[in-house]
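pasting for the record
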Amino acid sequence: MAEIESANGIKEQREWSNYEKLVRKLYMTNLYNPVKLGLENMDKLHKAIGSPMDQPDVSVIHIAGSNGKGSVALKTANTLRLADYKVGLFVSPHISSFRERIQINGEPLSEAQVEKYLKEIYDICEEQDIPATFFEVTTALAFRAFAQEGVEVVVLETGLGGRLDATNVIKHPALSIITSIGLEHTRILGDTVELIALEKGGIIKEGRPVLVGNNVPFETLKQCAEEKKASQIYQYEDLLGVEADQVMIEGHETFEDYDAENSRISKAGLILLQFHLAERMAEKGKTAKVILPETIEEGVKIRPPCRFEEMDIQVDGKSVRVILDVAHNPQAIDYLIAKLRANYPTAKQRIVVGMSADKDLKYCTNILLDYVSDPNKLHLVEASHPRAASISSILEANSRLADSHYETPQEGDLNGDGRDISSVSTQVQKALKLATENNEMLVICGSVFIMADARETLGIVEPRDSDVIAEVAGAGMRSSQENFSDSKKD
């Protein structure tokens, strides 16, 4: 049963929908099926559903990377959609609804589609005794949906690493892309960029091309491509030429404009993909749809939500510029501030921030405090997610935050994990009001876990999962098991 509040404020009980039951079950899967790296479960599951991603009528673009892979995946899929291809997109994490992870032509799967295909996957797991994990089941769900809905091209983002990632059961991608390599998940992937590059390079396949970004150990990946007998390894300059003036953002450090970098990787990938699509259609005696240069330019303009997402919100007849960004580690926050300085050099700003518990809370908040100068310009929030940092832990980490805005949670506002369920909405409303009164911009940043509540409070209309699902999101998962955008570029 779920508790809902009616229009007159009375709380009522209702039955959970089939969608809610199934997605709750999915989120709780890892409590019963412990995660172990390897492809055995996923190989069995992919074969059980007919190996749809290895069929000749589907072209797969497989994308890995420490940063930027989600952005490149979205830009690529968007361009293909504009070129009149039926395209499937598989990405993680989501912001407001689980269904965002699996999209067809830019639209998330419907609840009815998730119900249908997820039930089929669970039936197969039970019949064949496959102890699949959250990410394995979700990957299989995407594969099943894309096959049944007649998708022509699939853009597939890895979750963690590459070599042992659930998505890496595919045998014949049209193209593999590795966007960047940085130190991340070192306990699992290795403690040098070269070792991590070899894990990401696990998606390189024999006889298939691979495209890499500039921020990778190229010689390591070149050797990996040669050992795996890839048809060719490319950097984007090989296809686009060298850009005369690289777009830079000046801050305490000088940063590349990573959106420009991701756009160039996407453009180069689309050029390579066109060769594959032309060959595939020629084998059938047909002509491939042409992806025009202007279509590519338009398609790569898109950015993932909450990655320096800019919007204007109306408050009491006034317009407030709002920036949403999932910067929640020191490197990402430095980049966000550099971009704010570059794009809004004279604007006064107010910041709402919430963090994950495993981040360096003192270091991250010190960067923000140094930027705004006055702690009264900061609003601290805690997400309702079990891995979110509480207000008390943020305050304990940094005594300079004592004069910031925050709520002391009341017992009635706490969820089962002891988190304040009203924290984000309360502070976003307060910050919007003060930003309006003081002619300020509002920046909402930090953990992805705060973004669904923030977007809802801002009045953004989009698919959003119910509290019935949200209360179990992340159950039984460590951060390394679910890729919650620990990056500055994604």
